[in-house]
């Protein structure tokens, strides 16, 4: 066996070891039991009343939030709990809906969005934001920290905040302040009001 063949064999063995290790880490992570649900709060300003809603075809557990008073455009989007930003950017295509052109062309996907890892295999997602998020991947965010502004980017018909809570990668019923939202399926249109306790 010549030196070139030995080197190739050694490199191949090294790559195999790295891939096996990574696969093992992924399997262990998948098998790890999720931790307790964080005390998520509504991702909007303290004391404000917002309408939580869903509709047929929206997807189970997805919640859209609209303020009950005032304009939606540009309202602060807050972290529901503390954690680490794992995604910050564009999901799909932005489209052309703005405050000046609210009926502009729709985009697709979630538009400007953020995903936060809260530990214990719990994550939250925030979609359709107005402009590039105020946080970047790797940032540590505190509960209630502003991460963006409400908008209508992506596949959105009107300015609102689309919010999801996930455990081990699967969507779960959204809870706020230790209480379930009551939005579990998209079989029918649902609307209810809640007051945000996402307070300093």
Automatic annotation (TrEMBL):
Could you list this entry's UniProt keywords, alphabetically sorted. Answer: Membrane, Transmembrane, Transmembrane helix
Q: Which stretches does the entry tag as region Disordered?
A: 90-111
Carries keyword Membrane?
A: yes
List the InterPro entries: Cell_wall_metabolism_enzyme, Dup_hybrid_motif, M23ase_b-sheet_dom
Source superkingdom = Bacteria
Molecular function GO labels: metalloendopeptidase activity
The M23ase beta-sheet core domain is annotated at 74-172
Residue intervals passing through the bilayer: 6-28
Write the protein's name: Peptidase family M23
Per the UniProt record, the source organism is Asanoa ishikariensis
Print the organism lineage: Bacteria, Bacillati, Actinomycetota, Actinomycetes, Micromonosporales
